[in-house]
Amino acid sequence: MQESGFFKWVIRINSLLFLLFLMLGIGVSLYGFHLINRVTSSSNEVVISQSGSSQTDEEVKESFLLEDITTVSGNDVQYLMLNAKTTKRGYRKDIRNVVFFEGEQMKSHWLFENNDNKFEVMQQLKRPIDDSDDQMTVAIYYQLRNEDTDNNGKIDKNDILKIALTSPNGHDYTEIEKGMTSILEHSIDEDALVLTLLTQFEESLVMKKYSLQTKKKISEREITRIGKKF
């Protein structure tokens, strides 16, 4: 009887060990599947991890994705935006760069050599094509920040705001204005020859006009001042 009881305990122990090995095998398999699925779903992302300034800070991760393919009206040109998705106590998406493609051969070039840029506006400036409902892009307009002017180690809304123009294919990048407090409005005339900016420079409301052909300033006029009657 004692020998029979001993064998019963051996059988029970073997059963428990088998169950433990079985659960361990299932766990390893599920973890491996998770890793494979994660790599597959992130194959088009470039992930950059940046540690916080202290041990209590959460880790910041940025995923760079090419998205939103767009055709430049009336031109054999397309472009893709490079978006940075940042996760830290929430979600934020920023445009950091733009790649242009020209012609049937898809000849490409990037607007900037690095991705340390934050675009606030990117817009095609268009004019009507004669005897047609179609439009042609004559220039591309940008509002962006790409210099750490306050020396805090990052590009944010406290850095200098810039206004720039390029040709429809993304070449001839020209900064036409910078340092304004805000851009209240931008518009072009019917012939798409003149760009008008209504801007605030500290306490002044200023209207400026630029030639879209030469990318040079045509005129500047102070409209009013905050707290001052004209």
Secondary-structure map with pairings?
Layout: H1 2-41, E1 46-50, E2 60-71, E3 77-87, E4 91-102, E5 107-110, E6 118-128, E7 135-145, E8 162-166, E9 174-178, E10 182-188, E11 194-201, E12 204-211, E13 217-225
Antiparallel strand pairs: 1-2, 2-3, 3-4, 4-5, 6-7, 7-8, 8-9, 10-11, 11-12, 12-13
Description:
The protein has one domain. The chain has one helix and 13 strands. It has one helix spanning 2-41; strands at residues 46-50, 60-71, 77-87, 91-102, 107-110, 118-128, 135-145, 162-166, 174-178, 182-188, 194-201, 204-211, 217-225. The strands form three sheets. The chain has a five-stranded antiparallel sheet, with no helix packed on it. Residues 30-57 have low confidence and may be disordered.
* Number of alpha- plus pi-helical segments: 1
Structural class by helix and strand composition:
alpha+beta
Radius of gyration, Cα only, in angstroms? 29 Å
Distance between the termini: 112 Å
Instruction: Give a short account of the largest sheet.
Output: 5 strands, antiparallel
Helix-strand topology string: HEEEEEEEEEEEEE
Supply the key terms.
alpha+beta; five-stranded antiparallel sheet; four-stranded antiparallel sheet; 1 helix; 17% helix; 47% strand
How would you briefly describe this protein structure?
The chain has 230 residues and is α+β, with helices and mostly antiparallel strands. 17% of the residues lie in helices and 47% in strands. The protein has one helix and 13 strands, in the order H-E-E-E-E-E-E-E-E-E-E-E-E-E.
